[in-house]
Structure formats: structure tokens, C-alpha cells
Amino acid sequence: MSSENQSSSDNAEGSGTLIHQEQSEGTLNLDVGSTDTNKLHDPQLPSQSDSITNAEPDTSKGGILKGIKTFFAKEVEEVSNVPTVKITFHVHLPSLNYVEGYPVIIGNIEELGNWEEPIVKLKQLKSEREHMHSNHSHWYSDPISIQNDRFENEIRYRYAYFVPKPKPEEKSKGITSIFKKGDKSKDDEKDKGESVDKKKKGKDAEKDKIESVDKKKKGKDAENESSSKDSKKNKNELNMREDGNDLVNETAKTQANDTSTTEDPSAKDGQDSIEDQKNKETKSDKKHKDTRNKEEGDLYFEDEAQIIDTLENFQPDTFPEEHYSFLSVTMTAVIQLNVDNRSFDWLKLFEIARIIDPKFTFIDAIQELRYNNIDDRVKNFLKEFIKHAKPVVNLIKDLNIYSNIGRWLFSNCNSFETLLFVWMDVIDHTKDRDFHLLRHFRPRVDKLVSSSRATLLANQFSLIPEELCVEVAEIFKAKALLLLKHRSIEWDKNNSEAILQILKDPQLDWSKDEFLEAMGRVSESSKHNLLLTFPPLLNYWFDSRFKTLKTNKLPEICRNWYFHLIELINGSDLHDSNDSKFIFAIYKNLSNIFPIVGKYENIFNDMLKVTVDHVMNCAVSDILSVTPQIATLEKEISVSYGEMVKTMLRKSVHKIDNNLIKILLQVCGCDNEILDIQSVLSEDIVCSVMTNLEAKGDIVKDHTKLSTTILNLLNTFRFWRLIFNATGRVEKLYSHPYVKQVQRYIHEFAKVMIGEDITLRSLNEILKYDTDILYQFFNFSINNKEVISKDLIKKHRKDCHGYLLRMDQLRTFYDRFCPIDKVKDVQKFLDDITNLNNNLEYLALKDALSDNHWGIHKKNMNSSRRAHRIANSHEIGRS
């Protein structure tokens, strides 16, 4: 519009406004009579210079004649002594070829017409109509004279398309508004559509009927409503609030609507309803539908590219700086539409934005780019941004403006990799810029980095340049701790190794408390792979600067970790709670971490205690069976295990029996009756058993007769054979006092046997055992030297048997063949035989074998043999 104010676009609500308010309300006063023309004229338009006149100041209002600033022209005249302003409207409209009508202006004063009788028709120059196949966007009106007193109240106008009715007899003609206000109430829309009689109604009525577009206090004009917050007009200027952003969007929406003759919904008086218009659809309406169907989908505006090209070629000396805000509004509108259409052409406008929108406020209108979730689109966008926008943005000196653009770029990065690309390749870094940008960069990093997978988190951190690591380290540490906190995350081997890598990364600069927190969360995990990362973490702690820092938390963390690891092993399918494999798995894990904690006695002892507490709940046989395997572990571990086993056996072993033999075989891992001691641990346990037996003293007692001791030892022959025939590590066993004592007793008794000093009773008891057993028993020796031969044992067996047989022959002879009444001294012989039999425990073998041993019975030997044989034959016969 041109006069003393002209707009090339419409406002956000689709209406233009001429404002006149008192200064106390923070608006502009229009004081006609200014001699300041400040004329800018379109060379293609008819000259209007002859209609421009000067008016005297209105001293009654105390006004100062000031110019009405316009884009193209202004005209002020006085007719019949009534001051007037000539207004020429200029506007860029989208192509509406499918509408069979023409654009008009309606307003709330009679000079502008109304919905019922539009009198201001817009037109195009012939050259423009022919340009681009009649699609040129520029329209203008004839000059309209408006009396100055009209400006005492608010003047509002709206662009519309006038569509003639298909039936000429109808009284009213339809008007299609190219702007619709979806955010206003129905009552407001009705008020706007009604005809306005300015002369009969006051200022308050006008505000109820027509939306007020008030100027904010201290020069905050209507561009502030359409995101052009930087354009501030002089408080005495005439302002036309025409938001080009909504002009373009609302126009495109109207083009896509499924109706060709839609009236303002509030314009009920004097015109047909929308439904009536639909029911009377003409061929023109059908044409509109066909066009809409072809373009249904994205918003469409034919002249979008032309406007961009026009703005791109803008020359700064074309318009006064105070009118740049209007261009800024138009630029913002076309940029928003271009973005909505997923195009990058708008990036060319950064250069012009540097002039007409130096604060680049248009960014606020496109906070979320439509293509920011499509990788290829984002890459292409950044490529174009670097080409067109980056050179301009790099020239920005204001840190707040630059950081705002950086924030906008960051917010539209849909991946961490894209965000890093923007930081490294798009941003022109300086120390001051980085300080401001990092406030926006860090939150975006926090949003984009992974919170579900450690592998992705580690990979993302590896992409960060070294100089930037310190700026985002806290974010990655927080994410890592969050990952460790979530119990539902599955920790496979790769993710476990990745979190270990993160925790050990020196660039993250973990503090003592942070690292302890991470170790604590690992120690409380129920995931096997994650628990296995604890030993390397602990090792990292002791190898780093942390080891010099005092903390009471570490032993408890280690104890908790080992407890949870044991619980996990115990609950797995591989091991039963009473399985020897489970027991060894516990000690094996302790062995794995021993190189790390072994030299820290308090930590290691805590872990040993946890181990023993779990193992003691298992079966004794399962515990003993893993002894050979435990013996292969570190000495500190095997010794601890040995002490536990010895304590158990001390309480459970009370005597030598088959169970004790089984225990010894399990301790040594033997499958047969040979005790093969292959480790110091097994030897130590066996020796402990011998110590316990010695303390019991049930078999060998110093005050016991040798023969009785030997008999006791023979009763436990299997055990002693196991001990004296043991192989492997037997040095300690054979040097055990109890073993040596038993061996000494056996050797002493062997000497008695050899010297025939053994009593016949003892010999008779000993000879109850098999010759092979006796032979092994009496030859138990460390050097395997034979002490007693089998022949000697056989001889002693023969001699003892012969002596007892003679005693039996003599008694049979005297009892059965020498009656007392016939043999006078037979009782003497019987008494002597009885005496000999009663003293067998004192009668040494060698004495019994002497020639004079039988004395008075010697002459009866032959008779007694014959009598015994006869008696036995008679016994056989009776049986």
C-alpha cells in the first residue's frame, strides 16, 4: 500500500490497520499537515505528484505536521477545506487462477467499502499481467482519498477476492477472503464481518467490532507479533501492521481449501452462508477443486521462488532503513513457507537478512525445521548452509546473535554425529563465541547421547575432539552412571567392555567420588558380564592417583561385589549350591582378583570371609573334593581353604574308620586305595588329621601293652596301610610324631616276633589275621625294607598251632582215657595242663618250644596223640 504508508504484505490476522491513538496509550498520533513527503514512487505507476498537496498544521490539536512514511508514495490533499490523505494500496498476492473473480479491499470506513459493497478494486499493469503467464504477484489500487478525521479512530482493512454470483438476480455478491482467523472466537469474527459505520459509533465500539492491533509501549510495533521484534517505529509514525508471514501461509491454506466461494464466517448480514455457496457451486468452483486436488499435500505458493529472488537482489539504497521491518516481515514469511516446503532456497536470504534483519530474528519463526529428522535432508541442509549462510554468520560480531543462531542449529541436529559436524565444520570458533555457544551445545549433547547402550556412548565420546572433551565430560559421566543405575539394561560382553572403557578414559577425568559411585553400582549389579568388569576397575583404581586417596568405602564395595558375584554363580544353571564346581568357581574368581587385592590385607580378608561363609553351607564331601583344584591357586587362598577344612575335620573326625579313609582320599583326589599326595595343601590336611588322631589317643597309648597296641593297629590296618603306603608329598606326613610313634611300635613288636619273645596268647590273637596282612603290617617302613618274612610268620603260626594242639591232645587223653578211679595221679596231670593254659599270656613262644617245657607230660605225648585221634573219630561217627 502506498500513501504515506504502504505495505507489501498482510498481517497475521489477515487485516491491515491504520492506527490513531493517544500518546498516553503508547500508540502513534497522525497529525495531518506535515510537509515532509519523503516520497518513494514506483516508476511503473501513474504519476501522482499532481495530487500531493500540503496542509496547514492543526493547531487545535497541537499537532506537528509530520510525514506519513511509505514504501512507494504518499499524497495529501485538501478538498473543500477538509484535509485528506490519498492512499494507494500495493500488495503481493499469490496466484488464484482457479478463482473466477478479482482482488478487492474492504474496510471499516466507507471509503474502503465493505463486505456487501466492495468498491476498492485491485488491478495490475498490462505489462505485469502478461509477465509470467499472468501470474505476476503485484497488485495495486487507485488512489483513495481518506479524510484526516478518520484517523481519530482505528482504521482497519482486509484483502479479499470478489467472486460474482452465478445468478445475477441475487442481491448480494460473494466475497472469498484469502485470510481466515482460526484463533479468534465466533463473536469476534461476526464483529469483523459486519458493516462499520464510523460516524455513528465511537472508538470503543470500533474496538469491539474489529480486532485491535495496538502498538506496544515505547515503540514496539506490530512486527513484534510476527517475530520481527527489532523494528521499532517513531511514536509519531503511521504504522500499517501487515504480517507477511501469515499472508503467505494463510494464502496457501486458502488455495488448498475445498471451497471456491467462502465468505467470512461472521459476515451473516446481507450475504449468503457458506453452505448456500457450496450448494450453488458453479463451473468455476469445479475448476478450483481440480486445481486443489492436483496440489493437495504440502503448502504451495507459486511466487515463493520469485519473492526469494527479489529479496536476494535487494539493494540497500532502495528503501529507507525505517521500512526494513516490513521487508523483514515478508522475508520471514517466505522463509517459513520455504522451510515448510522442505526447500533450502531460503538460505540465500542470509545476506539480505544481515541488512534488513541484522539480529536475524527470522530464526525464531523456524525453530523446528521440517527436515530435521531425515539424515540426507539434514546433510544437504548443512551443505547449503555452509555455502550460503556461514560466510554471513561468521561476520556477526554480536555474541548473543551468533549464539542464538548456533543454538538454533544445535536444536535442529537429529543425531550426535550431525551435532559434532555443526560444531567442528559450521561454527567459526573464537574463545568468546565458544563461551556463549557451549551453554546451548551442552544441553543438546545431553539430549542426543545414548542412555541405553554403553557401546554407543563410548563410540560417541570417541568422536569428540580432544579440546572439547572437557566441556562435555560431565554429560558423558552422568550418562554412564545412569546406565549403571538401570537394572533393566542387558549387559552383554560388548556393552560391558564399553562401560569399562568409559570409566577408564582419562579424558573424562573421573573424580574419586564419581569413580567410587560407578564401582559401587557395578558391584551391586546382577549381570554377570558387568560384574566381571569389576576386577579391571579395581586394578585401575590401585594403579591410578586414586590409590593415594583415603576412603572407607572401597572394602565394602569389594565385599559387595564378591557377594553378588557368588550369588550369581550360585543361582546359575551351571552350578548347584552343593556342587563342587560351584565351590571351585568361587575360589577361582577370588584367585582372579587376588593379584589386585592380595596386597591389601583388609580387602582380601573381607573377600575371604564372604567366600568361607558361602562354602560352609555346602556339603563336606563337595568341599573336600575340590582340594586338589584349590591347591593350584595362590598360596594365600589355598592356605585359607586348608584352615577351613581342618577346622571342619577337627569337629567331625573322632576315630579311624572307613569315613576317615574316604576323607583322606577326597582330600588327595584319589580314586583307589593309594593315597597319592600331590600338593602341600593335601599333605597339610592329612597331617592335621593325624594330629587330631594323636590327640584323641584311642589307638596308641603310652601305658598300653605293646601287644594290645599292635592289635589295635591291626584292627585299623586299612587306614595305616593307606598312610604308610602313601606316595607323593609324604615327607611331612612321615615325619609326623603320630606316624613315627605307630611305626616304632610296629617295629618293636616285629623284633619280639623275630626273637620269639611274643607270648602265645598274643601270638594266637595276631595270627587271626591273614599272613599277607601281617606281612604288610610288620613291614610298614619308610625305606620299604623287609623286617619280617612270610616264612617267619608261617613258622610262628605253625608253632603256635602245634602247641595249642598238644594242650588239647593231653587234656582229651587225661579226661576221657584216664579215669580218676583207675589212674591214681591223673588229677595232677590235669591241674598242670590247666595251669599251662592259664599262663599262655605269659608264656613266650620260645619257652613253649623248649624241650623240657612239657615235663611230666612228655612221656604221654604219643598216647595223647592216639587217644585224640580215636576221640575225634568217634565224634565223627556219632555225628
TrEMBL record:
It comes from the Eukaryota. It comes from Funneliformis mosseae. Signal peptide: none annotated. Residues 1-60, 168-299 are annotated as: Disordered. This is 2070_t:CDS:1. Residues 180-244, 265-297 have a biased composition (Basic and acidic residues). Residues 1-37, 45-57, 251-264 have a biased composition (Polar residues).
